Amino acid sequence: MPVPTSSTTSASKTTRQTSSRPDWVETETGNKVSRRARLHGTQHITLGGRCVISPGVCIRGDLVRSSPPLATTTSSAQPQPTDKQSPTKNKKPLPTTSISLGRYVILSPHCTLTPPFRPSSSPSTITISSSSGAPGTYLPLRIADHVLVHPHASISAASIGSHTVIGSHATLQSMCILKDSCTVLPGSVVPAGMVVPPNCIVGGKPARILGERGIGEGAGEGGGGDLREMWRGAGKEGGVGWTG
Prior knowledge:
4% helix
């Protein structure tokens, strides 16, 4: 199973097998990835360092924004563009990173990460088809540092801020945004396009803001678990990702 590298990790020296758990690999920047995780399009996945990708996790890096097709025919009555006017030379390349994880992002078993899909009927928009056949485009999914995702969560958000906790069996629908230090309660459904302010607790189907988080309730801050300790114990007996 290919393992994505961070932006500073050489692809030729990306992984080593841990001696105690041969079913896990570890990158030079400390990312621990289970061999039973499913990572699609690894060239479009960036891990910031010391992340944990547990067994059964599915990351859809293959759903990446594609470049618009170039016109194949031009009218003879229209002047041809010069090099300075050439759309292919002036146009900035689209980002190739589909899913980006910061440092100490813990993905518990059987989580799913999918880039958000934005439908569009505009002819100027890059159009690709989603699994439902709707026209639109996939946009990058960004997860900041110190984020804990509990088992069986499904994430298709645009961005998730740092020190955030996602409960088990929670669903984050397409293009929603979670600011820093948020908590999504187990089983909640955050609707598409919802923006959750910092330090908020959300829950329900659909999710709504239930209150504010107290000091020490975030991931890496005590209440959400010490993510450094979780990273150290990843794959070991009783640790995150342990399957026996």
